[in-house]
Design goal:
Shape: elongated
Helix content: 10-25%
Number of helices: 3
Radius of gyration: 23 Å
Structural class: alpha+beta
Order of helices and strands: HEEEEEEEEEEEEEHEEEEH
Distance between the termini: 67 Å
Mean pLDDT: 77
Oligomer: single chain
Number of strands: 17
Amino acid sequence: MKKFVFILTLSILFCISSVAVKAESLLVVNGEGDIIWKVLSSTDSISLSIPEREHLEITDVAASFETTSDAKISLEKEDGSISLSIDSSEGNRSLDVTNWQDDLIEVEERGETKKLAIRIIDGEFNIEQKGISVTTSYPINIDPNKNEISVQTPSGARFLSVLPIEAAESALRAKVITRFTDKKASLIEGDRGELVYVLSGEKVLNLFNLLDYPVEVEASVSVLTGEIVHVEQPPWLIVLSYLFG
């Protein structure tokens, strides 16, 4: 009996130790547009420096910090360093988040905005929404009061009127993509200067109702209108899509 209790105790301890704990986002924009810091160091000043991730210790947290409603968030990359800043009537709060590995910003659903998370992957900004993961090098700005997300491109600021999941749904509705393979995309300026999501996937042709034939395609979706502005595909696929699409 003692042996059984000992084995059971070890099993329970092993299971508990194996549970992965996911840290909360550094910053949360809630449904009312308020900005809440979820992690603060014990020294809460106007300018916080986080040169290394281990300097943020959960034990130093006194309470969450909520900013004023006029605050604006920005993510910028310069000389290999990435900074997160909040500007409001109370002043400027800036952090070096270059080595931050968990979600940086979580935007909760409000009105037409869908929940999304922003993080850093391989030194680039990553916006994830319902499994669609979009990577960009452009600085990101968030205005919770106006319910707006924008990026700063070489040709100026561009609002993301269409969010990643909406761009993916647009490509599926237009039938230029039948299914997504890895659900990864990029946010870039197109050849004509328009800002687009570039989505990769497969166009599946049903040949005589006997065989599904997948072809790799790439669709560029406007962040302004959600329209398909370009499709990268083999020339012959246009004809086959008409016959078997």
